[in-house]
Amino acid sequence: MVLKLHGLSVSISTARVVACLHEKSVDFELVPVDLFACENKQPEFLTKNPFGKVPVLEDDDITLFESRAITAYVAEKFKETGHDLIRHENFNEAALVKVWTEVESQQYNPAIDPIIFEFFAKPVVGMEPDQTVMDASLEKLKKVLDVYETRLSNNKFLAGDFYSLADLHHFPGTFYFMKTPWSSLVHDRPHVKAWWEEISSRPASKKVAEGMNFGEV
């Protein structure tokens, strides 16, 4: 069975999973879910994810939701193919991958996500962005990026000198952020900038970016 991924290519969460599937060289079918038409709130979709969010992955007899859980599943199930995203042969390196995937989830994403929502998503539905929310989030993001700058001054990537799931999880949100007027927060930190240029130049990242045209909607 070819994996079925229900989602929207412009969605950060969907893009996170698509990037992982490409890195692992796994065939899949992207089943579009029109969030703007609220297809994710329809009964058929809610049987797959009762919380009504994309993405959802169907694989044989299992259905999964929550993008980071899906990428962990894909990286583990297909650990022998494509790029090793979880360092499954090195216990310490694998532990560091888990640490920095948690950092992305608990520190980086909460800072950057409101900026993306206000700047890109609200105008699409005719709402005005809230600059106060963006300013507060930018201050949080600066502090996180300062930590990253220190970390990346000693390591090429977040978990070490190897590209992993920790770096991949950052790609979609950062891709959109770099299209905002505040991309200098990345450019002004040389090690963060070098890291971003490295992860965004990967073939899988470039392939995912082709469908991430939210700012052009």
Which short descriptors sum up this protein?
217 residues, alpha+beta, four-stranded mixed β-sheet
Question: Could you describe the largest sheet, including whether it forms a barrel?
Answer: 4 strands, mixed
The tally of strands reads: 4
Structural class: alpha+beta
User: Main sheet: which strands, in order across?
Assistant: 2-1-3-4
The separation of the N and C termini measures 33 Å
Please tell me the overall pLDDT.
95
From N to C, what is the helix and strand string?
EHEHEEHHHHHHHH
What is the helix fraction of residues, given as a range? 40-55%
How big is the Rg? 17 Å
The number of helical elements comes to: 10
Large-scale geometry: globular
Into which percentage range does the β-strand content fall? 5-15%
Low-confidence stretches: none
3D architecture notes:
The structure is a single chain. The chain is an alpha+beta fold. 53% of the residues lie in helices and 8% in strands. It has 10 helices and 4 strands. The chain has a 4-stranded mixed beta sheet with strand order 2-1-3-4, with helices on one face. It is globular, with a radius of gyration of 17 Å. The relative contact order is 0.14. The model has no long low-confidence stretch (mean pLDDT 95).
What's the short version?
It is built from ten helices and four strands.
Per-chain topology:
Layout: E1 3-7, H1 12-23, E2 28-32, H2 43-46, E3 56-59, E4 62-65, H3 67-77, H4 91-124, H5 131-152, H6 165-168, H7 171-177, H8 184-187, H9 190-200, H10 203-209
Parallel strand pairs: 1-2
Antiparallel strand pairs: 1-3, 3-4
